[in-house]
């Protein structure tokens, strides 16, 4: 049948927020209510009539409430097929009450995990009866309406008011789809918690509440963003964020996360840094980052790891840029920056947490650990006769951090804690280096005393030779080529310092 009149409802929810108007509406419609535990008490406190589940099943809640609704009289009332003679006969024989509407709000498993609760508390928040009720009612959508989360209370109330307690098959099927979305997301969260050490070679990715974007990477492609429940930023100004914006925002947050406890500013274009620098303050760091490539900065994504003050805002305000990200903005800075209505301003909520990286591949999925390794002083092994100076070591570490977040093949040139140029995404490491050198010269940088970082080893000495002739005095690279000695020999013959890290940082 298409239309079904709701005559009875089972209500079993963890969170009671927003439930009151639903209960009052159901009572006004003369719907018989069944419930148990805290939900039953809530309904009674509203002055509505409600029948305890225990009075239907003749069985009490047991094991501290772990088993309450799991009973044939409850699930039979949900699952029996209306109008099927055999089901109707069994329903009468076993005195099973019909249940036309099921309202569930599950135990907050993900929230409990996020809170840092003990394993015992987390396990107790794995809902059993609620999930079973959802699946049963969703399966029998031809006869039963399932409301699987409090986020759908508004839709239910509208449905009850519009139909006077009657629902259409299209409504019930929609709510059924939502219910299986709820249950699959819930089970995925539980699996991922239990499989934290990845002993089961399986992935479960469940993303709810997707946001439809204007388009994907290009205007002819559709795009949807599925955020998690812990957003990295709040948008405080500007136009709608696009697909490409989101890709650049992630790259920017990942890059700036390498510079904790320091004042750093980055400018990115197409996921790569076209400028990044440390500074005495945010304005100083911005000016140095901008100087590295005043052309590519146009339309770029800017990020700071310190509050944007009026001085910094004024320094960058004349530049056209898409996005500015920072942990906070002073009121005076916002007054300056908001003069451009489409300019996107994002306030960072939390630091980057790199865990697992997924990539669609051949209609399947590739998964790997996030590259959380940051090269540090203790990782450096000097392989040349000349050791880098303290200043060069600091610049080498800076260059390595930027290199890690640039597309391969990549070469990064740094001097005095300022990236002076990079060559990224090249098919040849030599091309990447020559591009970086030419770019540095185009923007007026003196490379004498600069350092060079490479994301992978040098199979030949050509790169260190080109770098030396450009004025570069120190090199950082992973090492590991069977011909490492050729590059070492060239450095020793020409007074260059070179260190190996032992860690490659390819990024594709």
Q: Report the average pLDDT across residues.
A: 94
The stretches of 5 or more residues where confidence is low (pLDDT under 50) are none
> How many H/I helical runs?
18
* Total E-strand runs: 23
State which percent range the strand residues make up: 15-25%
Biggest sheet descriptor: 6 strands, mixed
- Percent in helix: 25-40%
Taken from the alpha-carbon principal axes, the silhouette is elongated
What oligomeric state is this? single chain
Round the Cα radius of gyration to an integer and report it: 31 Å
Strand order of the largest sheet: 10-15-14-13-11-12
Structural class given helices, strands, pairing? alpha/beta
Distance between the termini: 55 Å
How would you describe this structure to a colleague?
This protein is of the alpha/beta class and 508 residues long. It is built from 18 helices and 23 strands. Strands 10-15-14-13-11-12 form a six-stranded mixed sheet, with helices on both faces. The protein has a six-stranded mixed sheet with strand order 18-23-22-21-19-20, with helices on both faces. A five-stranded parallel sheet has the order 4-3-2-5-6, sandwiched between helices. Helix 1 packs parallel to helix 9, helix 8 (129-139) runs antiparallel to helix 10 (169-194) and helix 12 (282-291) packs parallel to helix 13 (310-316).
């Amino acid at each position: 049948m298409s239309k079904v009149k709701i005559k009875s409802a089972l209500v079993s929810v963890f969170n009671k927020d927003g439930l009151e108007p639903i209960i009052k509406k159901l009572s006004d419609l003369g719907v018989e209510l069944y419930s148990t535990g805290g939900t039953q008490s809530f309904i009674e406190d509203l002055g509505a009539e409600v029948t305890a589940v225990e009075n239907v099943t003749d069985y009490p809640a047991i094991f501290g409430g772990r088993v309450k609704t799991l009973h044939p009289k409850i699930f039979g009332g949900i699952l029996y097929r209306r109008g099927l003679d055999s089901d109707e006969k069994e329903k009468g024989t076993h005195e099973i009450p019909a249940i036309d509407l099921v309202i569930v709000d599950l135990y907050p498993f993900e929230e409990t995990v996020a809170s840092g609760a003990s394993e015992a508390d987390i396990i107790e928040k794995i809902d059993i009866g609620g999930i079973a009720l959802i699946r049963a009612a969703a399966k029998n959508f031809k006869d039963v309406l399932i409301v699987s989360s409090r986020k759908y209370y508004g839709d239910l109330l509208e449905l009850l008011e519009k139909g006077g307690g009657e629902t259409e098959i299209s409504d019930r099927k929609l709510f059924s789809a939502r219910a299986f979305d709820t249950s699959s997301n819930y089970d995925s969260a539980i699996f991922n918690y239990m499989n934290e050490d990845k002993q089961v070679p399986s992935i479960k990715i469940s993303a709810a509440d997707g946001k439809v974007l204007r388009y994907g990477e290009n205007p002819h492609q559709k795009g949807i963003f599925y955020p998690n429940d812990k957003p990295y930023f709040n948008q405080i100004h500007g136009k709608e964020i696009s697909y490409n914006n989101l890709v650049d925002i992630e790259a920017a947050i990942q890059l700036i996360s390498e510079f904790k406890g320091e004042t750093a500013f980055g400018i990115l274009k197409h996921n790569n840094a076209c400028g990044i620098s440390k500074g005495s303050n945010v304005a100083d760091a911005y000016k140095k980052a901008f100087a590295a490539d005043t052309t590519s900065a146009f339309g770029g994504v800017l990020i700071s790891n310190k509050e944007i003050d009026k001085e910094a805002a004024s320094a960058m305000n004349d530049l056209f840029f898409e996005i500015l990200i920072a942990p906070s903005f002073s009121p005076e800075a916002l007054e300056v920056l908001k003069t451009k209505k489409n300019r996107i301003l994002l306030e960072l909520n939390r630091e980057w947490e790199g865990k697992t990286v997924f990539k669609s591949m051949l209609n399947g999925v590739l998964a790997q650990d996030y590259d959380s390794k940051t090269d540090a002083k203790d990782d450096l092994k000097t392989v040349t006769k000349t050791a880098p100076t303290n200043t060069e070591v600091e610049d080498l570490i800076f260059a390595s951090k930027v290199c890690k977040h640039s597309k391969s093949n990549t070469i990064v040139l740094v001097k005095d804690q300022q990236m002076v140029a990079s060559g990224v995404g090249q098919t040849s490491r030599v091309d990447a280096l020559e591009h970086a050198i030419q770019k540095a010269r185009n923007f007026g940088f003196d490379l004498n005393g600069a350092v060079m970082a490479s994301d992978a080893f040098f199979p030949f000495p050509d790169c260190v030779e080109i770098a030396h002739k450009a004025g570069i005095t120190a090199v950082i690279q992973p090492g590991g080529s069977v011909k490492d000695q050729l590059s070492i020999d060239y450095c020793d013959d020409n007074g260059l310092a070179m260190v190996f890290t032992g860690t490659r940082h390819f990024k594709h």
